[in-house]
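Repro:
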Amino acid sequence: MPPSAAGSRPATAPPATAPPATTPPATTPPDTTPPATTPAATADATPETPRPPMIHAFAGVRAITAGWVVLDHLQEPLFTMFPGLRFLGPPVWSGYIRVEVFFILSGFVLAYNYAGRVRTRAGYRTFLRARFARLYPVYLVTMVLAMAVNVAVWYLARDTLAGIPFPLDNFVANLLVLGSVPGFMSYNSPAWSLSCEVVLYLVFPLLAWAALRMSPRKALVGAALLVVVCVLAINMTAPPKPDWWPMARHIQWIRAAGEFAVGVLIWVWWRRRERRSPRWDLVAVAAVLGVLVVVYTVEPGTPPTFLALPFIALFVASCASATGVVARCLSTRVMLWGGRLSYGLYLGHFPVFLLLGAVMPWEKVAHAPLAVRVGWMVMTLLWITLTAIALHHLVEEPARRRLRGRPA
């Protein structure tokens, strides 16, 4: 996609979006719990109640979606260095819709894990503590990395820190994960979606309370209507170009709130009518084909690309019940591993991209021999992967264990 991030697209790299968190049975990183809009928005089971069985296919969904985020932000060097790959352009140029996967997945997974547990103050506190432990440590580290790179680039370009565009109020807003609040901007572009999710966590008990009182049919109808409302609202209120409209503040909140609620409603329908079957694998394939039809027939970077939203919602719902080839492919060891790394990959790739852009700009090798171009791309992807691994093993897991009261 032309990436999603905040405000106008930055010169260094297209902004990103967030992606979902750990899935109960599979949404964030064995614990292959997936993230949320960040890949970390899926929840861990509380100590008081047993963890629901993991939906392993969600780990693969998170891994693929996080990889889609990376490709989105590498689209310019990728297609400039390797023009023969431009036939893959539409899905990459429309990559901003990747965050839709994370938001819907996050709503589903959090409802799956916590809808029945946040009805008491103790359960709500446990929920917030688990979310904080799951999301904030990696967020804080990557925020500091992104800010440090930007400060270094500013200093090297001007030989001074005077006038650096990091006012104190914006720094405090980033510390509080408020980068999507009007007037502020996330230092780490993909973190905007996490900022939206934090607000949704605060109102999640109300969503859960309402969801648990809905019949499956009403939930399904509500999800369908909400998808239509989101698509219409985005298309009717998107600002004109050249503004990067997917990151306009009101568009961010329509996407986050509407799609998170869609995920919760899909869970309500799914949990009452759970029918695992290989037929759902066919539905998942059809949903992916639907997304591809939209992105290949609609002009990239325009609001009509959100016509893919119904197919994205259908894909998440079908992966929850698939038991055939698609489910097995999304549940391989590689996919489970990728699901665990997805949150670190989502938030960690952008600071790495900024750093490499300052140290070794891709423009300098854009027309170099093929071996040099391939080497640059391999090195970039390698550093991004190593950063995700380091964030997962050195920050995410140790911090989560400590903050949730378990010894590391």
